Amino acid sequence: MTEQRELPPALRQELRFNDQGLLPAIAVQHDTGEVLMQAWMNAESLAETLASGRVCYWSRSRGRLWRKGESSGQTQRLVELRLDCDGDCLLLLVDQTGPACHTGRRSCFYRAWRDGGLVTLGEPLIDPERLYGDP
Amino acid sequence: MTEQRELPPALRQELRFNDQGLLPAIAVQHDTGEVLMQAWMNAESLAETLASGRVCYWSRSRGRLWRKGESSGQTQRLVELRLDCDGDCLLLLVDQTGPACHTGRRSCFYRAWRDGGLVTLGEPLIDPERLYGDP
Predict the structure, then answer these.
(1) Residue A114 forms contact with B (CB below 8 Å)
(2) Which residues of B touch A118 (CB under 8 A)?
(3) Model's pTM, two decimal places?
(4) B10/A111 touch (CB, cutoff 8 Å), yes or no
(5) Cβ(B95)–Cβ(B24) below 8 Å
(6) Do B118 and A10 touch (CB under 8 A)?
(7) For testing contact with chain B, the best of A113, A115, A119, A132 (most B CBs within 10 A)
(8) Left, alpha or beta for A63 (phi > 0: left; psi -120 to 50: alpha)?
(9) Do A108 and B85 lie within an 8 Å CB cutoff?
(10) Distance CA B106, CA B36 (A)
(11) Which of A72, B104, B105, B124 satisfies CB 3.0 to 4.6 Å to A131 for a cystine?
(12) Over the stretch A77-95, which tens digit does the pLDDT of each residue have?
């Protein structure tokens, strides 16, 4: 059971959560700048992330905290949190273990629109069945 | 008057707009990887962006299309559109003229949370009064 955590007031007052209590969060590999993924955070997941140093999102589909890597083992260590100018988006500089994407690719943004069609960039680093399969 | 534009079906079918008809869009400088800003697109703004090559968002506060740079002159040229794995977030590789941020800074993500406080990174490239002031 994780202890309920609260955001530091000096941070909380700068954030403008949406009407569902969420903020979009963009995860970027801290040393290469690669945009890995976008997910959502509520106040609790952000507070846990800051306290633990391990990135925790809010899963909208599952309606619960989502400790990145809890199923796949592919965790994200928080290196630095940044806010945008109006406090309604978070940028997470992270150190990503292996692939960020559930397809086994490093980044979720592996599809490009080129010449009227979608092109797939990059191959999985790990077979997704191995990421989520039975141990 | 801009002609009404529609998304190519091969792209439209891969996108999962939210219940307000919007997708978050992350703008990254194409050659440096710097994360510049995050805003929102609806189908019309994305279609216009693809047709014109100039990034157009949907302004939630103003409830209308927002052709980036229309007030400030600081436009974004689209270099490549990417989609994430589940089609609910866009990554725009752009060529940004000058600052992306309304504060006159290159990036909107200029505030970092360090040692229990917010630190401002970087100074405005242009005085925001000059960006939006009378000509």
Answers:
(1) yes
(2) 10-11, 14, 83
(3) 0.94
(4) no
(5) no
(6) yes
(7) A113
(8) left
(9) yes
(10) 7
(11) A72
(12) 999 999 999 999 999 999 9
B9 half-sphere exposure, CB direction, 13 A CA radius: 0
A35, A50, A103: residue with CB nearest B35 = A35
The conformational region for residue A58 under phi > 0 = left, psi -120 to 50 = alpha, else beta, is beta
From chain A, pick out residues whose CB is under 8 angstroms from the CB of B26: 26, 35, 38
- Partners of A55 in the beta sheet? none
**Structure tokens that stand for B21 in this block:** 């008809």
E strand or H helix that includes residue B2:
none
CA A112 to chain centre: 21
Domain ranges of chain A: 9-132
Confidence of residue A4 (pLDDT cuts 50, 70, 90): low
d(CA B66, CA B56): 6
Is A126 an interface residue toward B (CB < 8 Å)? no
Residue/partner pairs of A129-133 with CB below 8 Å, 24 or more apart: A130/A104, A131/A71, A131/A72, A131/A73, A131/A74, A131/A99, A131/A102, A131/A104, A132/A71, A132/A72, A132/A102
Size of interface A-B (CB pairs under 8 A): 104
Q: What is the pLDDT of residues A21-41, one digit of tens each?
A: 999 999 999 999 999 999 999
Contact A73, A51 (CB under 8 A): no
Check: complex ipTM more than 0.90 = yes
Query: What dotted CATH number matches B9-98?
Result: 3.10.20.810
Say whether pLDDT at A96 is over 50: yes
- Homologous superfamily (CATH) of A9-132 is Phosphoribosyl-AMP cyclohydrolase (3.10.20.810)
At B95-115, the pLDDT tens digits run 999 999 999 999 999 999 999
